[in-house]
Amino acid sequence: MKISYYISLLVIAILCLGCCTKDNIKQAEKAFITYYVDANTGNDNNSGTSPDQAFATLEKVNTLSLKEGTHVLFKSGTSYAGQLKPKGGGVSGNPIIISKYGGEARPVINGEGRYIAAVHFYNMAYIELRDLEITNTGAEQQNGRRGVVIEAENCGKTKHIILDNLFIHDVNGSLVKSKGGGSAILWRNHGDKSITTFDSLIIQNCHLKDCTRNGINARGYTKRDNWHPSTNVIIRNNLLEGIPGDGIVPIGTDGALIEYNVMRDCPDILSHAEAAAGIWPWSADNTLIQFNEVSGHKAKWDGQGFDSDWNCLNTTIQYNYSHDNYGGFLLICNKGNTINTPSNIGTKNTIVRYNVSVNDGIRPYPTERRGWFSPCMHISGPVENNFIHHNLFIFPEKANVDIDRTFIQMDNWGGPWANKTLVANNSLEFSEPYKMFYGKSKQTCGINNEFDSKMLGLTREEQVPVWAKDYLNDYDTEWKEKMIEAFFKDDDEMKNILIDN
Questions:
Q1: Which pLDDT does position 4 carry in this prediction?
Q2: CA angle, corner 58, sides to 31 and 142, nearest 5?
Q3: Is residue 231 pLDDT above 90, yes or no?
Q4: What integer is the mean pLDDT of 317-323?
Q5: Which of 198, 237, 329, 485 would be a feasible disulfide site paired with 357, CB 3.0-4.6 Å?
Q6: How many Å apart are CA 92 and CA 249, to the nearest integer?
């Protein structure tokens, strides 16, 4: 009897295990469903779950409630007019993936200027967008027009959003920043009912071309009495071309990594009232900007390759290549009349090291705001603890006698001047004399810089202030090799210049 009893239990257990396994398989199949979309041969009345049963439109995709592990794949070489605005969300380990199938050509999402964004993710987590072409051109420029908008509102921490290998082009947003501008990509986190931030937001391997006004920018919690930063933001290996305004601007972040991006060929179409620069943080802490190349920035106000801007702590700008930018290599700034208010604790602890600047500050015409103003480095307002060391500056002969020939210009932006600026161990190669202006800045010192004293009146200080000592010894013996590997592997002239310096 006992044997029969145990056999019965074993049979029941096996049957239950079989049922559970079948249920798990069904759940897995449901979770990992793939939808296919083909504008040429699909039909929205189809099931969408195989290439021969593909859907046809974005509108159909937008009606779906996407679950974890779901794939939405658009047929290679097809084109879709309208807006992609999916619903749902993935989970850790099983994100939603939107991509392509059936060939190498990217499917095209064309907003036609009818939508503020051709692709809009709203309150979606664990989602990846890959391998698509996106455009959004209207008959006229529009305030706030974007290629992709990633938005999270009143939904807490929003995790794991990846944009990868996208071609975003011809987005004609406004050229006026105060009216909302426009950009290829915008992320925005906001909400007063539930503090909402991004965690693990990655934008990589994308090509952004001919988008106005900006490339990649953001909105977030920026006031220090209500500062809730997004974390693990990574922007890397993107190519930005034909972007006239700001290239990459993380806002309201902590620990953002901006690396291996190229911004070039910026059209000179902004008005004299518009300030813009290449790569810079705003109201962001612990930003690392490295191995990027910015060239040909032509904004009439600012126009530098790199910038450590308003309300930022601990920005590091290292191993970058800046060249042929109208406004110069570097801006460090903060607005004085808002310093030490709930919105602005200051710009402090900016480290600028191991960069190469060639032929920066070449604005070829006077601007309405400040004439020919285009110093190689502009340090403005109440910025503290600026460490500029072990950089290489090369200044070829300027084409016009009126072009600005200033190495560093320090001035006042509505309040106190800069305090504690170290310029040390830099190599400067001049083809003609340059000038300096420290103004009323405090504790500005130049130490161990290599240059021809006939070309620049930079004071050589012998006594090292206590606050600067650590940075004089902060030296990466391999920085030149890193720069050659990143930018000049096939450029013998630059390799020789770096080795000689």
A1: 52
A2: 130
A3: yes
A4: 98
A5: 329
A6: 28
Q: What percent of the chain has pLDDT over 90?
A: 88
Per-residue pLDDT, 501: 85
Contacts of residue 219, Cβ cutoff 8 Å, sequence gap at least 6 = 186, 187, 188, 189, 190, 251, 252
- pLDDT greater than 50 at residue 192: yes
Q: Contact 50/36 with Cβ under 8 angstroms?
A: yes
Going 364 to 369 to 370 to 374, the CA torsion angle's sign is negative
**Distance in angstroms (rounded) separating the CA atoms of residues 501 and 483:** 13
The region that residue 207 occupies, defined by phi over 0 for left and psi between -120 and 50 for alpha, beta otherwise, is beta
pLDDT digits (tens, 9 = 90+) for 87-100: 999 999 999 999 99
Of 442, 312, 326, 443, nearest to 376 by C-alpha is 326
Is the pLDDT at 21 greater than 90, yes or no?
A: no
For the chain, the maximum distance between any two Cα atoms, rounded to a whole number of angstroms, is 109
Structure tokens that stand for 300 in this block: 């009439």
Q: Are strands 197-204 and 117-122 parallel, antiparallel or unpaired?
A: unpaired
Query: In the 8-state DSSP scheme, what is residue 9?
Result: H
Q: With contact defined as beta carbons under 8 Å apart, do 222 and 182 qualify?
A: no
Taking only Cα atoms into account, the Rg of the chain, rounded to an integer number of angstroms, comes to 27
Per-residue pLDDT for 425 more than 90? yes
Residue type, 23: D
Residues across the chain: 501
The one-letter code for the residue type at 238 is: N
Q: Which amino acid is at 178?
A: S
Q: What is the pLDDT of residues 100-145, one digit of tens each?
A: 999 999 999 999 999 999 999 999 999 999 999 999 999 999 999 9
Do 395 and 429 touch, CB atoms closer than 8 A? Answer: yes
**SS3 state at 113:** coil
Please, which pLDDT band fits residue 15 given cuts at 50, 70 and 90?
very low
Count CB atoms within 10 A of the CB of residue 63: 12
Q: What is the mean pLDDT of the chain?
A: 93
Identify which of 223, 204, 197, 206 has the alpha carbon closest to the alpha carbon of residue 132.
Answer: 206
Q: Which residue has the tokens 């006042």?
A: 412
Q: Which of these, 323, 333, 322, 326, lies nearest to 299 by C-alpha position?
A: 326
- DSSP letter assigned to residue 36: E
Task: Quote the distance between the C-alpha of residue 347 and its chain's center.
Answer: 19
- How far apart, in Å, are the Cα atoms of 183 and each of 35, 60, 114, 187, 216? 30, 27, 15, 10, 6
Find, among 127, 122, 108, the residue nearest to 154 by Cα: 122
Which pLDDT tens digit goes with each residue over 176-191?
A: 999 999 999 999 999 9
Q: Residue 463: which pLDDT band, with cuts at 50, 70 and 90?
A: confident
What angle is formed at CA 494 by the lines to CA 491 and CA 497, rounded to 5 degrees? 150
Tokens coding 328? 């110069």
Copy the structure tokens of residue 124: 């979606």
Let me know the angle formed at the C-alpha of 229 by 224 and 231, rounded to the nearest 5 degrees: 155
User: What span, in angstroms and rounded, lies between the C-alpha atoms of 124 and 158?
Assistant: 7
